[in-house]
Design goal:
Blueprint: E1 2-6, E2 17-22, H1 30-38, H2 42-49, E3 59-63, E4 78-83, H3 92-108, E5 113-117, H4 126-141, H5 151-154, E6 161-165, H6 171-196, H7 204-218, E7 221-225, H8 227-232, H9 236-242, E8 250-256, E9 267-277, H10 297-312, E10 318-327, E11 338-341, E12 347-350, H11 357-370, E13 375-380, H12 385-390, E14 395-399, H13 402-415, E15 419-421, E16 439-440, H14 449-458, E17 467-471, E18 477-478, E19 488-489, H15 494-503
Parallel strand pairs: 1-6, 2-4, 2-5, 5-6, 9-10, 9-13, 12-16, 13-17, 14-15
Antiparallel strand pairs: 3-4, 7-8, 8-10, 11-12, 14-17, 18-19
Helix pairs in contact: 3-4, 4-6, 6-10, 7-10, 9-11, 10-15, 11-14, 13-15
Amino acid sequence: MRIDVRTTAPLKTDTPCLVLPLWQDAKLDGAAARLNKSLNGLVAEVMTQDGFKAAAGDTRVLYTNGQAGAPGQAAASRVILLGLGKRDKVSATTLRKAAARAARGVRAIQRSSFALAVPSFEGITAAEAGAALVEGTVLGLHLFHDFKTDSESKSQTEITAVTLLTESAGADELRRGVEHGQLVAEANLRARLVVNTPSNKKSPQFLAEQAQQIAEENGLRCEVWDENKIRDEGMGALFAVGMGSDNPPRFIVLEYTPRGKANDAPLCLVGKGITFDTGGYSIKPSTGMEDMKGDMGGAAVVLGAMSAIGRLQPARRVLGIIASAENMINGHAQRPGDIVTARNGKTIEVLNTDAEGRLVLADALSYASEQKPAAIVDFATLTGAIGIALGQEAAGLFSNDADLAKKVWAAGEASGERVWELPMWDEYKEHVKGTVSDVKNIGKERRAGSIAGAVFLEYFVGDGIPWAHVDIASVAFTREEHPLTARGATGFGVGLALELLRNG
């Protein structure tokens, strides 16, 4: 999709469809007032009598005669009124969702391009607005139809060009925002692709190949350990999870190092990469198991973020670390009651083979700690319990460091990928303390499940290392349509990670 910025007046712009934002409970001004006058008060009538209140994300299509020569008339034959809500409540998140609804509206009336008039904002910069509008447009239009063959799906209108219109002096700043928004959106779509890919097409080796491709594209270092290297390196927890599959586990490291920063302490982004999860011998119910192709959502966050890092070019060294396995069942698969030894030497009693994500992360976090990092942030579809606590409105945040937690929270607010911090009090460590091993991989039944997962992971983080765990189990994949996501992968966490790299 081509996205341009122009300083042409909205009503004089030659476009198949003009998207015209309006504020709720505000007097019509600018292009909206001129259009209203030329249409004999139609815009005001729609707002006062037809139920269009310009609430955030509301849309309404107007049909004009498309005569550019008439004073005040729109050159576009279709105008979509787009509600932005109240002016003093606007945020980047508001703009993302509103832009997504507008773009879907354009597609519904079968136009392949459109122009959007960017209004002036209070409390949000032109760059932030440009980034949010682009992210919303690109992500809102995304559909995963890669495996569809029917003509109806293929014939759906594809929007190939978008023009953002500004009449202010901030065009250059808006362009900078557009460029960043495209970077974030493309990285998000890359993450969505690997999550949506079915597991018969996706294995730990597939993730390794994706990482190698990203490294080649961005000048990164990539290292991949096979199952033999994993075992020899003492990653007993990761190796045990992968024993039951014909697709062996992989341990993946991507490294970005700016010039002159080779000896700097890195920021480590760690991702859980379970490419399919049956639950092992603690087998899952059949209902919904098909969505377990998305249990590598944390790995997808790392891949998506690292795919953008060459263009983002942060001033800090970054390691992207992925522990990947399939949790399957055969004669070699681990059993409930097995005891495995993680890379840092701690022993783990596997009381539930369906709590496998924390096992692979145990070895990944141990490895990350050995790299003497400035901080570690892991992303994982770890617990169903987090959705019971927070729904799909936020991911769970757990941290041993207040300053890092604040940075992750701020990055979530800025990116629209919100997190909410839950406690990790010492009392919760009793939930996972082992009786015949150092720790066990589940806590107390039906109590603080997400917290138990987090405090388990903390046992594998080196002393004094700032660490944050982001549980994305309820937000990485959706069965419902949302403004920025159709059914399937959301890419949640990519925007947060990139914002953290840029400003954290």
